[in-house]
Amino acid sequence: MTKSGACAAVAAAVLTGCAGTREGARAAAPAAGIVEALAVKQPGALDWKPKEVLPKGAFGALLHGRLEEGPFDFFGKFPAGYTVPLHWHTNEVTVVMMRGSMVIGRPSQRDVEVEEGGFFVLPAKMQYMAHCERECMFLVHGERAFDILYANAADDPRGRK
To answer: What residues contact residue 41 under an 8 Å CB cut-off, 6+ apart?
Structure first.
């Protein structure tokens, strides 16, 4: 394709609304007079809570939405030397490493280290373990309910008394 042909294709996509969203449809402008509130959470206002679904030491702060149904966004943080044993999530989630790095280990595959500032997608039902050698903090987004299921029931802290 020539440069002018490529430019014409991009212009046609923009003019017909085929750019900007996954489905290729342009978002409709809000109706006159309807304004959504701007949601802002400053670092000092985050409500960090221990995460009972994870081994002791993990904390989370919900930013937006509801974990039980989605969509949602939350910060998570793990202390140095922290590992989440082999587990999976029913629904896909996306993660951005805000501070530190995280190693993602999957059965029969090479470990992948996601550096500070890195982005990764955890596909639904993909089994993996997560490890942070140094303290780490990450932003998680999901469109559907969030859960965690352990490959070994003995690793699930919810079953311990």
So the answer is: 63, 64
DSSP code, position 12: H
Looking at the fold, whether 78 and 131 belong to one and the same domain comes out as yes
Write out pLDDT tens, residues 106-156: 999 999 999 999 999 999 999 999 999 999 999 999 999 999 999 999 999
Count structural domains, the chain. 2
Is pLDDT of 23 > 70? Answer: no
Alpha-carbon gap, residue 133 to 135, rounded angstroms: 7
Residue 142's contacts (CB-CB under 8 Å, 6 or more residues apart) are 70, 71, 72, 89, 91, 92, 93, 94
* CATH number, domain with residue 70: 2.60.120.10
Q: Which domain holds residue 63?
A: 43-159
CB 95 within 8 A of CB 146: no
Q: Are 94 and 17 contained in the same domain? A: no
